[in-house]
Structures are given as structure tokens and as C-alpha cells.
Model the fold of this input.
Amino acid sequence: MQNGFYDAAGGMVTQFNRLNVVTNNLANLNTNGFKRDDVVIGDFKRLFQEMRDELPINNHTKPAAKFLNRALNNVPHIVEEYTNFDLGSMAKTGNALDFALKQGDLFFAVETPSGVRYTRDGSFTVDAEGRLTTKEGYPVLPSNYFEAKNYINVPEGAEIIADSDGGIHFKIAGQALNQEADAQFLITKFENLKTLKKEGQNLYSNAQQGLLSTDTNALMQGYVEKSNINAVLEMTALIETNRLVGMYQKVMDSQMNDLNMDAINKLGNVRG
Done:
């Protein structure tokens, strides 16, 4: 098999994987708080150079030659997939149950069957039991959740008024508004956003518990954060990826058909 076939096949697989990321970004263009994913593409030789100090043998020995397959050195690979946590635009809704966080490293905490998860989507609702929940029905957690294991319970008929520090006040008709907050959002902060893993439903998991945010003026009521997807850039990437797949297909076709046929005809035509 020609060495060029390896390069073309590897390039095509890489672009297929990139295509999955781009199409997922486009599918979530209108998902509140969604963060764009992207990939870093490298080659085998670069990966080897980065990891050779961890290999069990030195790279100048004969046994080490198996790690330096010249046919694969330039085959592209996706070496990293990452999430861009830049802020999306803030859209005013006027809905008292919509909330947005002004800083990109802050997250609401919610309780799921799999444990505590984190989200940037602050479009909440009140369920039949009076709990403040996400649209999927996951309870939104208060700041004292880990001590008291309680939820944010909204009194029947009460209006929710939130301050910029995450405090929640319940305004009941005919009663004076409490000066102190009746509840407090559990707004978490992560120093290293790379440790967050997407789990679907606009949720993130983390092996370690986030820090309780002490940032002031971080919450906006009546707003939602839109996705940080740029539709023009994603469509450009989609077109580019499709064209690259087509180019790699032509290279593979030339390697397997044209060159092989040419070699068979020439080698078979041996004059005595």
C-alpha cells in the first residue's frame, strides 16, 4: 500500500471528527448558554516529540524505530478538543425566572440523578412542588445545599426578585419585602475551566466541587445568555471541512486506482 494512502485516510478521518464538532455547534446555535467546541489538529511526529521522554526506550535505539514509522509521521490527528468559554450575548426577556451570569467562569449548580452538575443556562421554571428548577426539571441549588440538602422553594403566588449578588427575595402581595435574602443561588466558580466536561442537556460535570463564588454584581435577572456560536464562522468551517473530505477522497482514489493500475501495466510489460 502506498504511503500516501495512510496520509489521506488519516486526514479524512480527522475531518469527519471535526465535522461532528462543527455540526454540533450549529445545532446549538440557539441554545441558551451553550459554549462552542473546537479541535486542534496535529501530526504523529509532533505527538511523538512531545511524548518521547515518557517512552520506555530512547529514540536513537533500533527498537525505538517502531515509534517512528515514516509512513505515519505526517498523518493528521485531533490532538485536543476544547470548549471556548467566552461570554455569549445577553438577551433581555423580561421574564422574572430568567437569569444570566456576567462572568464566563461562573455557573449555576443543579441537582441531577447523577449528582450535582453545572450550567450556564439560567432559563428556569417553578415545578408543581414549588421548587425552582431547570426546564428539564432539575432543582436549582441554593448556597447552603451541601449543609442543609434543601432546595429553592418558591411560596405560592410569590414574585421572585433577585439581586446582582445572587440573593433571592420572595415578594408576596400584601407583605413587606424582606431586607435580607430569603434564599441565595449556589453560584460556583472554577479556576481551571478545562476540568469541566460536557454531559449533554447543557450540563457540565467536574470531579471536584466548584468554589462558592464571592463575586459581586454577577447576576442579571430578566436576561438569558445566548450561545457564543458565530454562525458565519461555523458555516465557513463546515464548507471547508466538506471540501477537504472531497480532496482526501480524490487522493485515496488516485492512490488505490490510478497509481496501482499504472504500476500493474508497467511492471507487467516486461520485455525479454
